[in-house]
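Researcher: Please translate sequence to structure tokens.
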Amino acid sequence: QVHLVESGGGLAQPGGSLRLSCAASGSIFSINHMGWYRQVPGKQRELVARIFKSGYTTMAEFVKGRFAISRDNAKNTASLQLNNLKPEDTAVYYCYVDPGLGATYWGQGTQVTVSS
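Model: Translation complete:
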């Protein structure tokens, strides 16, 4: 069993910053890619950013230049730095890991609210 613990998030003003962290533990030997999706009520979950074991990253167009993702392969952790936040970034952010074995594991989600 794989367990994900998310931290970070909260309330920020427009133009502000937040940092999300995700730690994976349990029966996991290697993570192919991990990252974050986000979801607002009534809409589908959308990819925000992901990072592969090699360090290669995929960033959604709407966060390019504002968010940055990093990971520590040895610790099975990842972080998402959210800069220059906009009200439209308000959502629940879900960390995920994909060990590359056919299953995807999800965190509990953390609320990010951007408001003045």
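Researcher: Any highlights?
Model: Residues 39 and 45 are 4 Å apart (CA to CA).
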